[in-house]
Give the backbone structure.
Amino acid sequence: MQEDSWKKDSKKLLDYMSKLSKGGNKQGLAYRFLNAVKSKNKSEFEWLLDRLLIANAGEHKELVQEIVRIISHYPLDYSENLERIGHIIVLGLISGNANSGGEQNE
Amino acid sequence: MSEAVARTMPDTDDAGGNGVPLRFTGNWFIDIGILGFVNLMEEVYGWSLDDLKKKLKENPDRVYYGYFPFAYLFYHSRVRSTLKKVGDIKKTVNDLSDKAKENKKKLVELLSKRNSNSKDSEVKKLDRKIERINSKIREIEEKIWKLNKEAGRLIDVLENEKLDLRNSLESVLDDILNDASSKFTNKKEIIDHIIPNFDLNQPPDHRNFFIYNPKKDLFNSFVYLFYLLREDFDTLYTYAAEISSKKKREGLTYETHPDSTVNPFLPSVEKFSNIDYTLPISLIKIKSGLNLSIPLYVVLLSFSNAFNFIDGRYISFYTNNLDVTYKINKRIKTRSQRPKREGRLLHAIWVSAIDELVESKARFSIENMYIIEIASIDKQKLRGVEFIGIPKFQATFLLDDTIRNSINTKLEIDKKREVQKYLIEEFVKGQPLTPIVIKNIRLSLSEKERKIKIPIRTAITASALDLAYTSSNDLFSDDPLDRNFLYRNVEYVKRIISEAHSLRIAVSDTVQTNERLKEGLALRLLDLALKENKYEAINTALRVIVAHTKECDMAKLKHIINPLLKAINDNAPTWRVFIIAFSLGLLGGNQNAGG
């Protein structure tokens, strides 16, 4: 994994994830992502990701495409990729859940 | 000389030299001896380093063969015996003060009982008790006053004796030294009266040294030292053989080949008698090898005077410059003599050392600074000797006031209160600090009744320093000649510390659940930090946020999300700093730093 490109991609991924608005109960979803990452369950992780992206594909088509493009660069077969991407997704979900009154995340 | 002793450092020309050959050699063992010599002369004659240099410039022989042997003999007879007596008195005074405190405590209790009691009979009974305790306290205070007076008197006597010694040597020293050719026989009367009540006490670092075994009188001790210092071995042997049959039989031994007889750092011939290469090097070889112009025995006999007894250990700070080393050790001595809370002494030492270095603008010196520690010398056996160098990396951080103050503390790490770690010391030795702070936090949580403060500032700084230390190669610079990169390190570490504090405060403000659960989660996170389990720690922290953050705005959340993003992305153990800050946030985050 190229560290420099990963650092840029991770920030973009976090930003895009925080802008997704649909996906059911975000707290529940974040939990399930964390469980999948913890148990390194790749298929569960992909299923959750698909669900989240499909739910937002209509409203945020371009965002979803970008997210897929970024994630596709990092094969999830490597547990480190799974852990990094999974945790960034959860961070995105958390920041998307926050009150939007304050500053924007970088 | 043993390998440790022969360890050398870059030779430097001492700035105060002025042509006088009193300067450090680059060999720490010899240099410590030189520092001991300077300290001894200051202790007995009150000469500062500059005074001593001046005297040496005027007439080195007078100092080395006249003033020095008398100073040595005076120190090991009058000074040490007086200091021992004063030490015993101080110990008794401390015990009595404790007793007085106990009685005063009792008195306060009785007075409050008496004030709340209305029964006449009870009041009378209490009055009698109060009177008894009052008289006890008066008695103890009187004893303390008398003892302090006695200690003061002993010190005054010693100071007068020093003055007398100085004055009498001023007038008779030349006469004495001029009589060397006739072995001082014409001046015996004068020499015998130079030190009143002369009674030698063998220092713990000597063993079987001629003048102590059996104890010689002042005249014989001086004559022996004179020829030893002059390295006039023929006369020394003739003289020693006259008064000792053992010397006559064995001849000169350690006099020509210095060994553990005078200093436990030197090898022992007795212990390794059958191994040729462990035989001590001859005095002549040592002197020529190190290009020493100072008599070697001045250095060997003064070695112990270079150390200050602090916090139960003998400590000496050593840099490769005599002036700086002298000033630092002098400051340390002054500070260590001030009454201090136990455990604050080491703090004082560091403050002294760094103050001196910063004041003398010798920023370079701290990079070449060493601490030599000896836990004890028992029957000439050294215990717990440490030679700690301060690497450039650590030195850069220690020069920063905020960082130094944050880790300038001792932390308990076990329930039995036996093990305390002094963080600066551990840092200088290159030991990781994070495990120490984590153990201390765990201890303060498990022993709540003791109300140990959680060292928040210390914990975050310590983990940030570990981050800098472990990743200094990948994080900061590829260019080994880039001298500024260490200073950039400090800025980087400070930025991480500031982010960690923001994270801690944000977590403390936003995570809402019961205290017990928070504590459990904090302990779990600290465990993961200790086990270096990065992703599980981040996973747990994210769970805490997902589950227990009810409402918060983006501004606060930013202080949590950004550090966690950095924690995920960095290959360096940045995550550990943030996870520790996260745990501290869960633990409240409002306690003060402390140890």
Observations:
- Confidence is low (pLDDT under 50) at residues 1-20, 589-595 of chain B.
- Chain B has 25 helices and six strands.
- The CA atoms of residues 445 and 452 of chain B lie 8 Å apart.
